[in-house]
Amino acid sequence: MIFNKDTAEKTAELLLQINAIKLNPENPFTWASGWKSPIYCDNRLILSFPSIRNYVRDEFAKNIEKQFGKPDVIAGVATGAIGVGILVAESLGLPFVYVRPEPKKHGRQNQVEGFLQKGQNVVVVEDLISTGKSSLMAVEALRSEGANIKGMAAIFTYGFGVAEENFKEANLDLFTLSNYENLLDLAVQKQYITEDQQSTLLEWNESPSTWGQE
Fold first, then answer.
1. pTM for the whole thing?
2. What per-residue confidence (pLDDT) applies to 108?
3. Does residue 128 have a known ligand-binding role?
4. 118 is in an annotated binding site
5. Residue 22 is assigned to a ligand binding site
6. Where in the sequence is the signal peptide annotated (predicted)?
7. Residue ranges with strand state E in 21-95
8. What is the DSSP letter of 49?
């Protein structure tokens, strides 16, 4: 679910402007999972554009507090959401922790890095939601440390049905600055893509695991 329509449209426009999101239906990308995709999203590029990272920071801070109430801690999911998570925590004047994909193999063998007390209210910041699997693994790691997870806030989601099911099963509310639907509407409006290309992109979104396979 998006925080609000205006933010969704503005965020989508900014992501397209800096090529954080690339749309190429005729020459699809290949994801690490092996899926063929007409879209590629790298929200880490946001950090290289001060005015845009500040916009994302401010929208996150404002909407997180409005939607979830002010938490005790902001948690970022490594590695893509560490940078923006720190910006949000700084804006709200809150502690920050981050969550590794798995515990370290040496030293203290931490998966959650930073100071976190049991019972603290945490909002998790993520850069991108695809299936939601890795994001929810981070949530489980925080819960195992005794954190009370108020919800997750992400920059962008592809809006896959499997992600909705995964978040519902995990009993976790997800809100995003923008999403696939708003992105495509804006991309057509601003002539980044044609209506025919939009149709292709919508077809992919309905069945991403099998799209483009002969």
1. 0.94
2. 67
3. yes
4. no
5. no
6. none
7. 21-23, 29-30, 36-37, 39-41, 73-77
8. -
